[in-house]
Amino acid sequence: MNVLFVTLVGINSIEDRGIYQDLLRQFRNKGHDVTIVTPVERRKGIAANYRQKDGVSILQVKTLNVTKTNLIEKGVGTVLLEYQFLSAIKKYLSTKKFDLVLYSTPPITFSRVIQFIKKRDNAKSYLLLKDIFPQNAVDLGMMKRDCILHRFFQRKEKQLYKVSDYIGCMSPANVQYLLQHNPKIYSKNVEVNPNSIELAEDSKAEPDKMQLRRELGLPENKTIFIYGGNLGKPQGLDFLLEMMEACTPIEEAYFIVAGSGTEYAKIKRWFDQKMPSNAQLIKALQNPNTIGWYVHAMSD
To answer: Is the pLDDT assigned to residue 114 strictly greater than 90?
Structure first.
């Protein structure tokens, strides 16, 4: 098959580790032709480009900053994504036909892009539903129900579901919620399709955990709890801070918060003010293997 993957995730190489890169490598390794359409945000200073790399095709579309930025630019950038992606596909992929188009949320504003590929190529479409927007924004207090913006994104959400031949949800509860609130969706076209990842074969000897804790500056005699990932509003970080503060008297516990995102400054202010003796904050691990070292160090 010729497979098109449309994503908001910045993908520079399919050999990097990640839930989408690992999935797409499986398609490539099974002999399918894979094309990735991915954004390159304006902060990178890179023009739109199309290239072959690691056995796949990558089309980078220049966009506004839609991650780790203020709400205004994020909102405007999200609205413009559909037009920017569609324009780039028409320019760079005009002669390439696809059998399957995969795409994930966020964002929900790709319906015209998917519809264009389906109509032009008679392709099947599959939505990887990673979050349910705009409802999650309403739940977080970031958007008022029935406001103009909410109604706009709600229409986009319905359009995306309508254009999707199949929808993969993260859990059975997500399937139930989706069908309950969208009765027009045909239930047989919705399934559970959680995050997938390729397990790495570690041929190295098991590290000495105590030695590793010493090298990483971690206490040797405490149980270590680690949060690693995006530090944004949807992650409910106020609860994380409340939990760490409540656990301050527990001498046997030690906490690590590692990541980046729009709420990183807030988390850092909390650490600067509280100066917890049983926790540390680490900004965005540059080496993806580093998180594995921390996990090794904390495991029994």
So the answer is: yes
Question: Looking at the structure, do residues 224 and 256 belong to the same domain, yes or no?
Answer: yes
Residue with tokens 């002999």: 31
Rounded to whole angstroms, the Cα distance separating 214 from 198 reads 30
252's tokens: 């046997």
What are 297's two structure tokens?
A: 């160090």
Q: Which of 289, 283, 170, 292 is nearest to 231 (CA)?
A: 283
Higher pLDDT among residues 23 and 107, named by residue: 23
In total, how many domains does the chain have?
2
CATH number for 178: 3.40.50.2000
Could you tell me the two tokens for 87? 């324009």
The phi-psi region of residue 223 (left if phi > 0; otherwise alpha if psi is between -120 and 50; otherwise beta) is beta
In angstroms, the CA 165 to CA 232 distance is 31
Alpha-carbon distance of 206 to 186, in angstroms, equals 49
**Residue 30: which domain range?**
2-192
